[in-house]
Design goal:
Number of strands: 7
Number of helices: 1
CATH topology: Rieske Iron-sulfur Protein
Helix content: 10-25%
CATH class: Mainly Beta
Strand content: 25-35%
Largest sheet: 4 strands, antiparallel
Distance between the termini: 48 Å
Length: about 110
């Protein structure tokens, strides 16, 4: 069996678990706790938000839902990217697609 087929099978098996875990996850940080250059999934007015505080202290608010199949992205502090745990999509800190399978950017969150 090829390694790409093994990867596809692993992702297919773990996808439902990661999808449910992400949507049930309770944000552990608040907007005020984020330092410049940091990102996290936070709660704003009862809504999950992928939030990144830029070096000027401005908060970039995005939908945390991966545009590929709906998993919740997580902040990668090393690369300063939003990464999807389900199928490997990656987004810039501003929500622009970097790596597929996602083909659309993360949507801005206006709250």
């Amino acid at each position: 069996m090829s390694s790409s087929l093994k990867t596809l099978i692993k992702q297919g098996i773990s996808y439902p678990k990661k999808l449910i875990e992400g949507h049930m996850q309770t944000p552990s940080q608040t907007e005020t706790e984020l330092l410049p250059g940091e990102g996290a999934i936070i709660d704003i007015n009862g809504k999950k938000v992928a939030a990144y505080k830029n070096e000027a202290g401005e908060l970039i608010k995005l939908s945390p839902v991966c545009t590929h199949l709906g998993c919740i992205v997580g902040w990668n502090n090393t690369d300063k990217t939003w990464d999807c745990p389900c199928h490997g999509s990656r987004y810039t800190k501003e929500g622009k697609v970097m790596n597929w399978p996602a083909q659309r950017d993360l949507a801005p969150r206006e709250l």
